[in-house]
Design goal:
single chain, alpha+beta, Immunoglobulin-like, five-stranded mixed β-sheet, 10 strands
């Protein structure tokens, strides 16, 4: 059977496009900076967050040298604590959960972005640089007030962070 030269070219181009599509989808699923909701954290009772040591009082605390843990609760239609205050030039691991419905947790202008599911703890680690204020948004539709669900992540100097935490502020 004879295959015309133009048919061979179109066949090769089609196979190449299919391979490029499969490659791009694979890269998008496992590429750098892409993380799914981690299952390394044990499930929690979303209706009893006040009984969980991490989430009964949402906060930012120092866990190492220039390392901090931020425990955040998303709810209809806000985030707690608000604002989230972290020191500059540090590594911050956000542990985020929801008390009611599925939410999103996106620090605008960064690659910090995860889905927040009731009963699960989403974990995302970021490196802070200079002092700056970032917007915090929910990017998963969570109800009628979704469009007003926002917050702030304030990156402040170490001295200001220490002052806020020693002054009794629940930042």
């Amino acid at each position: 059977m004879h295959i015309h030269a133009y048919e061979k070219i179109w066949l090769a181009a089609s196979i190449l496009l299919i391979l490029l599509l499969i490659g791009s989808v694979t890269y998008g699923a496992v590429g750098p900076g892409v993380a799914m909701v981690s299952d390394s954290e044990p499930p929690i009772d979303a209706q009893a967050l006040d009984e969980d040591d991490r989430f009964s009082e949402p906060r930012v605390e120092q866990v190492g040298d220039n390392e901090y843990a931020a425990y955040v609760v998303a709810y209809q239609f806000g985030f707690e604590p608000s604002p989230i205050v972290v020191p500059e030039n540090s590594t911050v691991t956000f542990y985020v959960t929801s008390r009611d419905v599925i939410h999103g947790f996106e620090v605008a202008g960064t690659n910090a972005n995860t889905m927040v599911v009731p009963g699960e703890v989403s974990k995302i680690t970021v490196k802070t640089d200079d002092r700056q204020e970032y917007g915090l948004i929910c990017n998963e539709y969570c109800g009628a007030g979704h469009h007003v669900m926002e917050g702030k992540v304030n990156v402040v100097s170490q001295a200001e962070f220490d002052e806020r935490n020693s002054g009794g502020d629940d930042a």
